[in-house]
Amino acid sequence: MTIFKRRTALLALGAVAAATVAGQAMAQQVTLRLHQMLPPQATIPARAIVPWAQKVEAESGGKIKVQLFHAMQLGGAPPQLFDQARDGVVDITWTVLGYTPGRFNKAEVFELPFMSGSAEASSRAFQEYVEKNAADEFKDVKLLAVHTHGPGLFHTKTPVTGLESLRGMKIRGGSRIINNMLVKLGATPVGMPVPAVTEALSKGVIDGTTIPWEVTPALKVSELVKNHTTFAGSTGLYTQTFAFSMNKGSYEKLPADLKKVIDANSGIETAALFGRAMDEGDKAGRAIAEKAGNNIIALDAAETQRWRRTAATVETDWVNEMKGKNIDGAKLASEARALIAKYSK
Fold first, then answer.
1. Distance CA 97, CA 174 (A)
2. pTM of the predicted model as reported, rounded to 2 decimal places
3. Which of 111, 178, 277, 298 is the most exposed place for a label (fewest CB within 10 A)?
């Protein structure tokens, strides 16, 4: 064989080897499609989901690419998000558990009135609680994390200065527990996912909404209403619970090294990441309302205690309902409070 032919053959072999290596590298790359309900500038997408995706991509050495789809871009409605992850319509979703009533019974305990305050502390508590007490409710997905938002409060067109002023108001609630609480407090609950709040307020479908501060900028709530009612003490009126979930098949198909990356970005520290984002978002949302000169009403300890007494029957209702499902609700509520106290120190 001439030198020229040998060189040509070697170059051809090199090209084949390079193509093979490139093909193997491409085969090792995985794209995970992540679907969620809020616009990209909202707190969780901007402060939790994007940083999480960037961290996963970096720690995988670029082998994992997280493709983000915001504001229900891939279709469906927010209550369908959990099942989109379960069924493999997408690989990962973030959603509100309360959008599917009666499905996450044991997880509901964190929604009870005046249960929690700081989102980071209660998110750590909620993650530990679910791992110990409610893992079966998430058996159909690879659960990446659960978390809560910070203190829930009222945002209304006319001021809520006490229990009496709430009576008869049409108030948006985000879950069946919250809607039951609104009934006890004298309001007329109107259930809807959070993305629907802006239109409902602007069209007068509702007189106000229960949401934490963090989501008010994305929904333009501080522009649509000028009154915000907060409560005395370290806990809010209520909180809602969220799940960050992955399709089991999508996870199982990953090679061992990439499973390790997902595992390292799951669990209590991921729950805390989402909780911290909520706490930071609360500060930013309140600052916008203050800058706008809105009326921020702080109910004093005595008035807050009236609300606590009235709302306490929501927990009694829930405990009695859980008895009918062979679930010890009183024990779960006690454990939830103990975990919140543990992480609030």
1. 10
2. 0.92
3. 298
